[in-house]
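User: Could you go from structure to sequence for me? I need the amino acid at each position, not a summary. Structure tokens:
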């Protein structure tokens, strides 16, 4: 079967980073990219593969890199004047994505809809592999009618809607074996399938002041998760509310702010442990994600995952098998 990809060479090191960053801007819009933590540009690796399909309206890219952060600001939006939606499928690795005060954590197979005309942030723990399918604004709006778009709300890979949408997205990225009419029909079916997952009736459910404050709090927590001094007082001041109301917002989600932060840090630590080199110390990973007490980290990790961080590494690392 004819390969549906036009594969670019692998990008590596400082020069590779500059070339990859340039090609990302040409294809996907202007983003500010932060290289990997630690060795930085010297350890950069990435790839970009452009979708080639039989239908002229089908476009997208597969984007691979170990960058730690991508940011698209208002100035970038004005500069390149791109106008479309992105349907992002997390093929490998994981990512945290923020747009319109909504935060999404994507694991393998999860999808999310993004608006390229709005600022957004991508945070990566390690090598990330994403398929980004361009969806023309008019095409999606025609199928949604007057429904409200819900950006950056993940479609889980283990849900019926998410699993089907993921399979269809991957099929579109390998559409060279299809006829143009078949590709157009598959693309149209994907848009109709997405309708209940990326839109809602105008009922005001997601526009209340309290709901917006909770979303802002979660976004700020994600951005400052590595800061061991993150506190309710600082967070409440940043989102313009009282500490008491901040605790009330999390209580309505049947959790506490402290428990929520702990869960996010543990998830990031687990991901980092799975991806870390054998010589990297687990204590360093814990400190990097905001823990300042190794004993507390070990107990919390075992309570969350059922085994110690050391045993977790052993189970998930090929180096120890």
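Assistant: Here is the amino acid at each position, in order:
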């Amino acid at each position: 079967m004819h390969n549906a990809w036009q594969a670019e060479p692998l990008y590596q090191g400082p020069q590779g980073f500059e070339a990859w960053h340039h090609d990302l801007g040409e294809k996907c819009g202007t983003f500010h990219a932060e290289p990997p933590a630690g060795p930085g540009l010297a350890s950069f690796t990435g790839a970009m593969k452009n979708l080639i399909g039989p239908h002229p309206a089908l476009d997208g890219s597969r984007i691979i890199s170990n960058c730690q952060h991508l940011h698209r600001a208002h100035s970038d939006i004005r500069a390149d004047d791109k106008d479309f939606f992105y349907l992002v499928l997390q093929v490998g690795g994981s990512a945290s994505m923020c747009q319109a005060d909504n935060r999404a954590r994507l694991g393998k197979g999860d999808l999310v809809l993004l608006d390229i005309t709005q600022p957004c942030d991508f945070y990566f723990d390690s090598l990330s592999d994403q398929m980004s399918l361009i969806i023309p604004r008019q095409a999606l709006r025609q199928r949604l009618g007057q429904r409200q778009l819900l950006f950056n709300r993940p479609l889980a890979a283990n849900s019926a809607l998410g699993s089907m949408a993921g399979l269809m997205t991957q099929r579109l990225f390998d559409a060279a074996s299809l006829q143009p009419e078949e590709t157009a029909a598959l693309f149209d079916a994907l848009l109709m399938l997405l309708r209940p997952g990326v839109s809602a009736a105008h009922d005001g459910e997601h526009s209340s002041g309290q709901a917006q404050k909770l979303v802002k709090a979660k976004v700020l927590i994600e951005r400052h998760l590595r800061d061991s001094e993150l506190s309710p007082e600082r967070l409440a001041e940043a989102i313009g509310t009282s500490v008491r109301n901040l605790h009330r917002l999390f209580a309505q989600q049947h959790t506490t702010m402290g428990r929520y932060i702990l869960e996010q840090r543990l998830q990031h630590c687990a991901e980092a442990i799975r991806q870390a080199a054998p010589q990297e110390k687990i204590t360093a990973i814990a400190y990097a994600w905001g823990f300042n007490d190794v004993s507390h980290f070990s107990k919390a990790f075992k309570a969350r995952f059922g085994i110690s961080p050391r045993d977790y590494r052993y189970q998930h690392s090929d180096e120890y098998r």
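One structural detail worth keeping in mind: Residues 1-7, 202-207 have pLDDT under 50 and may be disordered.
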